[in-house]
Amino acid sequence: MLAIIGSTASGKSALAFYLASKYKLDIFSIDSLSIYKYIDIASAKPSKAELSQIKHYGIDVLNPDEKCNAKLFFDLLNSLSQKRLIIVGGSSFYLKSIIDGLSKIPQQNKEISKYVESLNKYEAYQLLTKIDETYTSKIHKNDTYRIAKGLEIYLLTGKSPSVFFMENKKEKLNIEIKIFELIKPKEILIKDIESRTKAMYENGLIDEVQNLISSYPSSQTLKAIGIKEIISFLDSKITKEQSKELIIKNTIQLAKRQRTFNRTQFCDIFRGDFVEVKKAIEESLDKNI
User: Fold this and answer.
1) pTM score, two decimals?
2) Is the pLDDT of residue 289 over 70?
């Protein structure tokens, strides 16, 4: 099985669609927004035509009031282990979790989750540090996912995350995944982000966010880039043009964080531009035909 990763707007989906068409493969999306129904524009989800031509997994799985986590992708991929797939998406954290394996996490409690979500980043990090300084010393203070998970584990089990993970060893999938990272020059990437953001507005981003707020006012997805900026505009805190500029700025920053994560978290990986990655994957697939 192979995976294509890369920063947002790097061309991952286009390459995956081309390869899936050529080699008759299915696509497994590993994206924290595309997994939600009703968020098509903000997530840059494949078009309905593309979804009808190639079987996609990991898209339109959850309602916006449900929580996305690594185990969801882990279990879904495990159920598809016999299929010929291309894994593609910008949420490399989930791919990393799948490769490293996951410990069995206790079932979530809505009240506890709501309490953890009510804490700001500083409060959550400080509280978790008091509980388990060993655990927080291994994660970044802005790693909100692991901080929240650590607090939930403690509140659900009464055990520090370090003790819990020591007692609950990680389970890994019996799947070998070859990883290819798509790198796009910074100047071109920025222009593509600007163009994509403009197209999102033209395609109805504002209406999509309005519908999302109306139907799911407490959804965690309202904090996502491309959605939170529109909410600020709808609340008359910023102008429409400012919201567009803010989406572009935040998306560029996200792309930088994604690039850093991919560079530091994946070692055995092929990196290159579109042509180089395409050629490398085709050579790999041709050997296995």
Assistant:
1) 0.89
2) no
